[in-house]
Write a structure and sequence with these properties.
The chain has two domains: 28-256 and 473-478, Aldehyde Dehydrogenase, Chain A, domain 1 (3-Layer(aba) Sandwich), CATH 3.40.605.10; 260-448, Aldehyde Dehydrogenase, Chain A, domain 2. The chain contains 16 helices and 22 strands. It has helices spanning 3-10, 49-68, 72-88, 90-101, 105-125, 164-175, 189-196, 214-222, 235-247, 270-282, 302-314, 333-348, 382-385, 401-409, 424-433, 466-471, and strands at residues 14-17, 20-23, 29-33, 40-45, 133-134, 142-149, 152-156, 179-183, 207-209, 228-232, 252-255, 260-264, 292-298, 352-355, 372-375, 392-398, 413-414, 416-420, 438-441, 456-457, 460-461, 474-481. A seven-stranded mixed beta sheet has the order 14-15-16-13-12-18-19, sandwiched between helices. Strands 9-8-7-10-11-21 form a six-stranded mixed beta sheet, with helices on both faces. A three-stranded antiparallel beta sheet has the order 5-6-22, with no helix packed on it. The longest helix has 21 residues, at 105-125. The protein starts with a helix and ends in a 24-residue tail after the last strand.
Length: 505
Amino acid sequence: MSKTLSELKSVSNKFYHDGSFHLSKSTSGFDVIDPATELVVGSVLETTNAEIDMMIDKCNEVQKIWWKDKSAVDRSHAMHEVASKIEKMKPLLAESLTREMGKPYKESLDEVDWCVHSLRYSAEIGRSEMGRVMGPAVAGQFHYTIKQPVGTVAFIMPFNFPLVLLAWEAGAALAGGNACIVKPSEYTTLTTFLFAQAFDHLPSGLFQVVSGGGTVGEYLVKHSNTHGVAFTGSIPVGRSVSGACGDLMKPALIETSGNDPFLVMPSASLDIAARAAAFSAYMNCGQICVSAERFFVHEKIHDEFVERLVDETKKIRIGNGLDKVDMGPLVSEKERKRYEDLLSNASKQGANAIVGGGRPSEFNRGWFVDATVLIDCSSDMDIFNNESFGPVAPICKVSNFDEALSMANDSKYALGANIYTTDLKESIRATEELDGGMVWVNAPLLDNDAGPFGGSKMSGIGRQLGPEGIDTFRETKMIMIDPDSNAQDFWWFPYSDEEMYGNEK
């Protein structure tokens, strides 16, 4: 047994509380399955309500110490240490992530690196801006704001990027002075447990991890002693979380599904655009909220672009993420069935798979699927109106830029959008007119720790990363001070007779 498998076994059936692992008293749980081999790599028990109550109480106790007894510099140094520990754990975390959810080891290594960079950014921004001073409304007074933590934040995490999204969100929350209690995806719980060990030098109980499914997440969201929620997942669950938080007047960061458009115009370099399209559609086996999932290609270059994309697609090496591959399996048998049903329905509605469309024949185990290019697609097809979350590039031919823009925006989703063009006018119009929280011009899937990430419409509410990300978990308090305690006769009682009704001149 490899060292990593031993580590996964060692944290099975536990929860992370008060700086260490504890065996859950739960009797309900499930096995963790390697999606490439279908072998059991560990097991998870659903943390009980009593255990969660204990953990939340500890979070709230320690959060006050983290905020009131630690300076901004103290918090920054502690978070830099988290980043340094994660950096040292990179091979372990990367292998664990690949074994739990299937992505290629190289992508897992990248994800850990992104965690390090993001945490270091949060460590610095947490001490760089705590409010602002403004010109007073009354001479001689002092008016300013201070930003304070909301308290204990509950994080409901997805499986596709379980570490970096947690680093984005929990890093911002910790930098803002909050405590964190995390409910990972059922598919990536054990990797998150290993990740939690990098936080063990923080005040004991400041960062805690539970395990389980939807009922555990719901309990955290509705708990009277959690004060903010960050959720990443499906639209139905996101709406439920948002509604519950609204009822409790609890701030919530909601990121749900995406169905990002990818426009290709005649001025684009087709070799580059085809490579970018393949990467945007197939990275992480298409299991990315900002994957390109709707391709609108100008009729003048449609056939040539399709030919080049097919060539790029055929180059994709599929297999176990621990081998020399570009694409691993989907995360579960359930997800593969859902994805294959979507492809089958697209075919019934008139789409044609000119490459892929099935399962690689060389695998008799694992939840593998082919990278697929679909042509003859139209915007009324189900695959254009639902998140595929799989490695498919559905292509629709358009006659001009305006048609592409209109069809791209004709969606309930608005997370990200892509365009390949070297036409400056098209580039500027795309950035201004494409719906979504991010627009990539000739630069798909990039993030910037210093800039906001998030969407609109049914893709979510709020922003991660940048100053906007840390403010998600802070409350702004307005302060007005009169150091001389002057009487404010210009508007206090008694009101002057001259200003009474009927005395106007």
